[in-house]
Amino acid sequence: MTAKVIRKPTFRKDESEDDKELQVELKVLVERITGEDPKLIPSSIEMLKYLIRTATTSMTSVPKPLKYLGPFYGHLREKCDAMSEGTIKKNLSDVVSVLSMGAIETEVKKGYDCLKYCLQGTMQNIGDWGHEYIRQLETEIVKQWVMCDNNFKTLHPLVKEIMTFNCSHHDEIQGCDLLMEINQMYMLFDYVTKDNYKPICLYLAACAKYVDELESKKILKLISQFYMMFGEYCRSIIVAIQINDAKLVDKLFNTCKDKVILYQMAFICARHLYPFELSVEDDDIKSILENSHLSHHFLTFARELDIMEPKAPDEVYKTWLEPTNLRQSVLGEKLDSARQNLASSFVNGFVNAGFGTDKLLTTEDGNKWIYRNKDIGMLSATAALGLLYLWDVDGGLTPIDKYLYTTDENIKAGALLALGIVNCRIRNDCDPALALLGDYVESSSEELQLGAVFGIGLAYAGSGRSDVLSLLLPVIQESKLVKTLGVASLACGLVALGRNNSEVSDVVLSKMIESNGLEVLKSPFMMLAGFGVALAYFGCKDDIEVPTTVAEVFEEPFKTMFQTMLQMCAYAGSGDVLIIQELLRLVEEKVEPPEEGAEKEEAAKGKEKKKYEWDYYMGKAIAVLAVAAISKGEDIGTEMIQRIFGQISRYGEPSVRKAVPLAIALTSISDPQPNVINVLTKYSHDVDDDVACNAIFGLGYIGAGTNNARLAVTLRQLALYHAKNPFQLFMVRISQGLVHMGKGTMTLNPLHTDRQLVDPVAMAGILIPLVALLKPHSLILGRSHYLLYSLAAAMQPRWLLTLDENLNSTSVTVRVGQAVDTVGKAGDPKTIAGIHTHTTPVLLCANERAELANGEYEVVAPALDGICVLKKIPC
After folding, report:
1. CB within 8 Å of 758: residues ≥ 6 apart
2. Residue-wise pLDDT tens digits, 217-239
């Protein structure tokens, strides 16, 4: 072969003598390699390798040997191709593979030269060529992997080499990306160690949010196996709950032998209300899972904070700061309007929730306050007793029971609802709620039936119990009133939450189909009935095909409303980007309602005036709520949609504008961020009364249980601004009660256990009032204000409570600060910022995290959040 003439290198004026000398040296080496003398080739290749490997460079520039060898790439490549197989060719292939990174892709360089010549080379110590070379190989492996089926055998050894390099250089995340791209995640088992499993699992968990459901489940199962390998049972059970794997949860309880870890796992399951039959026989664990400890610990916590003194609504409103002509005493001689008394009943319940004492109902004159309310308002006033005795089944039944013997059916119905609220989130072997309320489920009185049915729904929310459903389903089948159908469907949806219960959907849908085409389908209670079916499919994702198909029989806009509610519940808290995009497209679509003339003619023909009219934009309004519900728990998505809502409100129809403040509030529950407060405050002065009402309620949602001073001032100003508007003023009072809920010790936030899990029961409790407020005057501002009590399902203390190994409360010093995202960060990064030191028990705000300040105890929980069991470290 005739040697090619290699042109002399041209030097730039700004190049140093060292650079010129290096260029000459490289040219000589290339001439020797491409020359005719075979004796000079091996030593020249070795020298070239040495110069490339030892070249130093800055992070922003190409190593000089690679830059200067670029023009010679074609010559070296041709020489390599012409060589016969052997060690020399392998060594030269290594060099060509590295040089291909700097070569321009022309006829000389082909698409996969780096990978091709690497496979031809020695395949030894590939990491010596540097991280960028490994990145290039990974890129080409991913592209090549999908092109040919037999690539596994060829590329598998190289993938193993790359993984070994990444894991030995603290670059496990890059390795995870490679294995995810080529669908070989199982290979991680060979590389996961005690030192690197935590960052790997954290990163994989973050990635699981952005892939399809099958891939996500596969990744999460892998994470749970890694955690089990290293004895991290609490972290593993969180993942098991995320993928709803009851067998894995049971396996973890049976495998773990450490009592403290078992207690902590039980507390995590209890906080999530995870329903499963535990095969481990242990009274303490059973008690934890039943949440029977909740009331005792909460009252101990309240005494520690010295907030046991009950608060009256006047103290929440701070009426003494209002102008004299607007002051209206709740406890004084002057009576308010019935609507404001009703608002005070709700406020009294929310503010004193869980404390078992107040200044209106638990006093000697408690009956008087109930009679200050009118008609169905007495139902809600009495039901507030349920909030006062929240979680205290033993202490709450007796004071509520006496109201069951009154002759007034509204008060009796309120007492039934109160009994259900007391039992909310508590499991009790005696089943007091079923025993006391079961007799009234088939009552001939509408009020008693509603109180009993809704009470049972709240008491057994998330339990999925077939005996409870068998009691409620006949109510739906035999219901003659649309109100009964709506509330009973909601109750069934709460009980069968997320169980994909075909029986519930069959019964409710059959009843709805009977009403198809009739005026009754326009009732807001039919919307609640549809939402009840949707709740049964909560978190079921793709399993909503059957009810979605059945919904095709309904006329518009009911069909779109129902299908959107199904999507909202099925994907709530999942952060699924594709579903969010689909819903946003629905919001953008133009809806063509029937011509007004045709409607007027139809109305003229009718003998009676229609009670309800179709709102053809309601499907879009529910889609707005659904976007917020689905993005909950995924920070980037939440931040993006808050911006999108501004556009929707600006250009949307009145019904859609009504939903925007509610959706904004849903993205920031119990987390009063200044920008969200500002937006909702603007909406609370809107010319549309419904938008203003919903925005005011949204302010209560974002500040729920925070005692936020800025919100409290804003709501007092709104009380003056809306003093002459009874509906807006009612909403202001409700929001004031929510902001001071539990005297600032509670939260409605469904995210728990360091924001890793979304509590489905809490999410359902939050969504019911929001869906009802899409038609505010027909439901919550009308005669169905008792729907607000569904919030009892979401109420939880926002605490950090530390217990010792015997489950006794113990005080430890902790550092509390804003949670910092550590996914993908090298080393041992700090998990909190802006640190304050406290002694437990402490109140935790949204986005706050705690860590132990001394080494006296060991934390077995994945994060200090909620109730944590600590293990004493031996001296």
Report:
1. 572, 573, 632, 633, 750, 751
2. 899 999 999 999 998 999 999 99
> Does the pLDDT at position 3 exceed 60?
no
Q: Kindly list the distances between the CA atom of residue 271 and the CA atoms of 274, 426, 645, 753, in Å, as whole numbers in the listed order.
A: 8, 11, 32, 8
Q: How far apart are CA 621 and CA 511, in angstroms?
A: 25
Q: What is the pLDDT of residues 699-739, one digit of tens each?
A: 999 999 999 999 999 999 999 998 888 899 999 999 999 99
Which CATH number covers residue 738? 1.25.10
> Does residue 681 share a domain with residue 620?
yes
Residue 379 to residues 162, 371, 383, 403, 593, Cα–Cα distance (Å): 68, 10, 6, 11, 39
The secondary structure element, H or E, covering residue 648 is helix 635-651
Phi/psi at 217 (5° precision):
-60, -40
Buried-exposed string 37-56: b where 16+ CB fall within 10 A, e elsewhere:
eeeebeebbebbbebbeebe
CB-neighbour burial class of residue 148 (10 A; exposed 0-12, middle 13-18, buried 19+): exposed
Other beta carbons within 10 angstroms of residue 816's beta carbon come to: 22
Last residue of a domain, one of 122, 144, 172: 122
DSSP H/E element including 792: none
- C-alpha span between 758 and 272 (Å, rounded): 8
Asked whether residue 184 is domain-assigned, the answer is no
- pLDDT band at residue 598 under the 50/70/90 scheme: very low
Amino acid at 448: L
Tokens of 621: 């309004």
3-state secondary structure of 799: strand
Contact 30, 69 (CB under 8 A): yes
User: DSSP assignment, residue 444?
Assistant: S
Number of domains forming the structure of the chain: 4
CA distance 142 to 162: 13
Bond from prior residue into 557 cis (ω within 30 degrees of 0): yes
Residue 186 backbone zone (phi > 0: left; psi -120 to 50: alpha; other: beta): alpha
* Three-state DSSP state, 652: coil
Domain range holding 833? 799-872
Q: What is the pLDDT of residues 171-218, one digit of tens each?
A: 888 888 888 888 888 888 888 989 888 889 999 998 888 888 888 889
